[in-house]
Design a protein that fits this description.
Blueprint (H helix, E strand, L loop, with lengths): L1 H36 L1 H12 E6 L6 E2 L5 E13 L6 H19 L4 H13 L6 E8 L1 H7 L13 E10 L7 H4 L1 E2 L5 E2 H5 L1 H5 L3 E8 L2 E5 L12 E4 L3 H18 L3 E8 L5 E9 L5 E2 L19 H11 L8 E3 L4 E4 L2 E4 L6 E3 H6 L3 H12 L3 H10 L17 E2 L11 H6 L4 E2 L2 H12 L4 E2 L4 E6 L2 E5 L4 E3 L5 H16 L14 E11 L2 E14 L6 E8 L8 H4 L1 H14 L5 H5 L13 E3 H10 L14 E4 L14 E3 L17 H10 L3 E5 L3 E5 L12 E7 L60 H6 L62
Parallel strand pairs: 2-10, 30-32
Antiparallel strand pairs: 1-8, 2-3, 3-4, 3-5, 6-7, 8-9, 10-21, 11-12, 11-26, 12-13, 14-17, 15-16, 18-19, 20-23, 21-22, 24-25, 25-26, 27-28, 28-29, 31-32
Length: 836
């Protein structure tokens, strides 16, 4: 038994030894086969994997504003690496201490000894061909400094490697941050950067890189394919208006402690977006551009009362006979309509259609829609579809929200849906989609697609140009458009937005206040808005302001969102020169007198005369430096020409020159260059000098000069009266005040007002010498009352008709310049004018 066990163990040991021996032989055979028979193959494969072509990213294109201010650009930064294998021992040992000191002083993260030890260890290990000296990236100026350091200045023999890395930079900081957008490492992002990624990114190149311990080292063998830089994107954004929009929105959000807000400013004719601001409240209480509330899903909400414009447009298209002065009974402020109870914030009773819109009456609008479309709700939604409210706009940026407009065929449609949709509920629109409809009303019914990118450029060459796209050539009839614009203007004049009524131009718009739908029911949190256009008579800009969830007591669109609209509109009108003409037309033109020309340096006088357009002989014939105006035409007030002659007194050294008529600066130059001392009194030009011209003047002689002003002080400008709002068919404010057009009476039988004889606090306008001599003294003449002069009583009194005999017309207002015989501004009738 024992023998068999022993025999079994010996057999197993022998078999195990034999297996190990066979395995060892197989390993040795495989090693020899790889080393000798397949060695060339594996060495070629290793070489192929060690040196390979890798993509080289292209420089990303820039994003510009409408005036080509850079909003986003790529700046080059560099990673600093080193190849110690190319540096010879003599150079390294001689300069390593200096290089370590430079690195320690620049980066200030390690000591000189640590950097020296790092460099020596890398140089001692001959297999190390690449080390990253520091993780910090340097800019181009710092790169030039590095290239001048010891060892590195040897160029390729110095082993320094600068790896270029482009970083995105925004010169205006966070301005339009979400609109400009971003692209992350996963090629995801938002805004213009993400939408135009293919245009901006360019085409990457290729270069040969060698895998070395520590990373990849570029191999410059001449086979590199250079990357093609990306195209530039030129937007329609105006930097100044963008800044104004964000500033006004930020102040409103902080003042109302709101959740988020957005502003969109767009040109009416072209659809070009000039400003778009998106600010949301962060966890720390600050406001940042976190989402595109202006057109993306985050901003898609029930519009509320701003949608009433579409409802009224549908009603007026269905019933062209409906007039703005037709009466609507809104009851005591609470009424059952279409199976749902509709309420108003105030009881309005019987009011006109115009007042229904001005007061934003939910009952009035719901009744009108219910009366016209209750039998066929599909007809109402068909009008909304005709307006294009059910379709996206095809905006140039990715992420536009899909509008939702309920249809009678939907399963969620109920008998209350029609009256509820009429006042802006049970549907969802993004702010940009609401603005596009208002813009169509301002644009004569032509609905255009909003546009934020104008050109794709390569340097100065335009590669692709985007034209204005018309979505609907006519959203409604001209008669409906006139009624809609009259209602929108009435909202600012007499309605819920009269607090933002400007004095110098007109605004047309609609306020909106919508309840927020949360957890299956409407809560007492609100979304406020204001949408409109300006100037109302000749619309140039349309704008929408949305402020969500205000929480400091103000909940209405007229109190929260409308002031932001007014602030931005004021900035736009202040920058628009064409819009200043109506205001400038109310200011009497003032003739600026030509400066008094007596004497001085010929080149300076000639330059001044050339700049202000004075013809005549502005150069003396002899090329003299100092000249004097001819006595016959001493001033340019009458002849408006200047004739100069040489100043002979200046040509005699040692004698006193004639400095009368010169400015103090010129007189000091002439006298002190001759060694004379000057004592001057007064201001203006030299009237008298203590030493007569032509007398001997020794050096050190004291000369007294008396100066006198050459013109009377300019009076302060007259205060402008407040404009009167009237219904005009043409912009009569463009008629200059000097045209002499007679003003029609404001009411039939209005009496002519007599100028008040009391002196006004406004200083009188200075008259020129010619005007003062030519104007005789007269008593103030009577003139017909203007439309701005309101009688003391509402009942018109009997009075003489104006001399023109024309009938009074309350639709137009023209301003008339005072006749030549009228009294000066100090006795004007400005006190009789009353602000409309």
């Amino acid at each position: 038994m024992k023998g068999s066990v022993k025999k079994s163990i010996v057999t197993r040991v022998r078999l195990a030894f034999l297996g190990v021996a066979l395995f060892s032989c197989a390993v040795a055979w495989k090693i020899s086969r790889i080393q000798y028979q397949e060695g060339a193959k594996w060495r070629a494969l290793e070489q192929e994997r060690r040196i390979s072509y890798q993509p080289v990213p292209a420089t990303r294109g820039n994003i510009y504003s409408d005036n080509e201010s850079i909003m986003a650009t790529s700046l080059p930064f560099y990673r600093v690496a080193w190849d110690p294998g190319v540096v010879d021992d003599a150079l390294f040992n001689a300069k390593v201490d200096s290089l370590a000191g430079c690195l320690a002083h620049f980066f200030q993260d390690r000591s000189k000894e640590e950097y020296k030890r790092k460099l020596q260890d890398a140089h001692a290990g001959h297999e190390v061909r690449y080390i990253r000296l520091n993780s910090r990236q340097i800019n181009f100026q710092e790169k030039k400094e590095f290239a001048s350091w010891p060892i590195f200045r040897a160029k390729r023999k110095g082993g320094v490697i600068f790896e270029k890395v482009d970083k995105r930079f925004r010169p205006f900081g966070g301005l339009a941050q979400r609109t400009v957008g971003f692209v992350n490492e996963d090629k995801n992002g938002a805004g213009l950067e993400f939408t135009f990624q293919q245009k901006l990114a360019g085409r990457p190149g290729e270069a040969l890189f060698e895998r070395v311990p520590g990373g990849f080292k570029p191999v410059y063998d001449g086979t590199e394919i250079k990357p093609q830089p990306g195209y530039d994107v030129k937007t329609t954004l105006d930097i100044n208006l963008q800044d104004g929009a964000e500033d006004a929105l930020y102040k409103a959000l902080v003042a109302n402690d709101a959740k988020y807000g957005c502003v969109i400013l767009m040109e009416v004719k072209t659809g070009e977006i000039k400003a778009v601001a998106n600010l949301g409240k962060a966890e720390d209480g600050t406001y940042k551009e976190d989402y595109n509330y202006a057109f993306a899903d985050q901003g898609r909400t029930e519009p509320g009362s701003t949608f009433k414009l579409a409802s009224m447009a549908a009603v007026m298209e269905a019933d062209p006979s409906l007039q703005l002065d037709d009466m609507v009974d809104t009851g005591p402020g609470r009424m059952l309509i279409g199976g749902a109870v509709k309420t108003d914030s105030h009881a309005n009773g019987r009011i006109t259609v115009q007042q229904v819109f001005e007061k934003s009456s939910n009952i009035g609008v719901a009744r009108l829609v219910q009366e016209h479309f209750a039998g066929n709700p599909t007809r109402y939604t068909d009008y909304l579809k005709k307006f294009g409210l059910d379709r996206p706009l095809g905006f140039q940026m990715n992420g536009e929200a899909l509008p939702y407009v309920k249809d009678p065929r939907d399963r969620s449609w109920s008998r209350t849906s029609l009256s509820t949709m009429a006042i802006g509920y049970e549907l969802k629109l993004a702010p940009l989609q609401t603005l596009a409809f208002y813009n169509a009303v301002a644009n004569g019914g032509v609905k255009v697609a909003p546009m934020i990118v104008r050109d794709i450029k390569q340097a100065d060459q335009v590669v692709e140009h985007f034209e204005t796209q018309v979505l609907n050539p006519k959203v409604c009839s001209d008669a409906t458009l006139r009624k809609l614009r009259a209602m929108l203007e009435g909202v600012v004049l007499e309605g819920t937005a009269k607090a933002i009524r400007p004095k110098d131009y007109t605004i047309a718009g609609k306020t909106g206040t919508a309840w927020k739908f949360k957890n299956g029911r409407y809560t007492k949190t609100y979304s406020t808005s204001f949408c409109g256009f300006f100037p109302a008579d000749k619309p140039k800009y349309s704008c929408i302001v949305v402020i969500d969830s205000p929480s400091k007591g103000r909940i209405y669109g007229g109190d929260v969102a409308a002031p932001v609209f007014r602030d931005l509109a004021d900035k736009c009108m202040a920058r628009d020169q064409a819009s200043q003409r109506p205001m400038l037309a109310r200011v009497p033109a003032r003739r600026t007198p030509v400066p008094l020309v007596r004497a001085g340096l010929q080149q300076e006088i000639a330059l001044v005369c050339q700049k202000i357009g004075l013809p005549g002989q502005t150069f003396a014939t002899g090329g003299e430096e100092w000249v004097r105006a001819s006595a016959a035409i001493d001033t340019a007030f009458v002849a408006r020409t200047v004739s100069l002659r040489p100043d002979a007194s200046v040509a005699h050294p040692g004698r006193m020159p004639d400095v009368r008529g010169l400015t103090l600066r010129d007189a000091l130059f002439l006298l002190e260059n001759r060694g004379l001392k000057v004592q001057a009194s007064g201001s203006g030009r030299v009237r008298e000098q203590s030493v007569a011209p032509g007398e001997f003047a020794k050096r050190g002689l004291v000369v007294g000069l008396i100066l006198t002003p050459t013109a009377a002080p300019t009076a302060a400008p007259l205060a402008l009266p407040a404009p009167v709002h009237t219904e005009v068919e043409e912009n009569t404010l463009l008629i200059p005040a000097e045209s002499g057009t007679r003003t029609k009476a404001s009411k039939p039988g209005a009496s002519a007002s007599k100028p008040v004889a009391k002196p006004s606090a406004t200083p009188a306008k200075p008259a020129t010498a010619v005007e003062s001599a030519a104007r005789p003294t007269k008593k103030p003449a009577k003139k017909p009352a203007t439309a701005e002069e309101k009688p003391a009583k509402e009942k018109p009194a009997k009075a003489k008709k104006p001399a023109s005999g024309n009938k009074a017309d309350i639709r137009t207002t023209r301003r008339t310049a005072a006749p030549a015989s009228a009294p000066s501004a100090g006795t004007s009738t400005a006190k009789n004018r009353k602000t409309a």
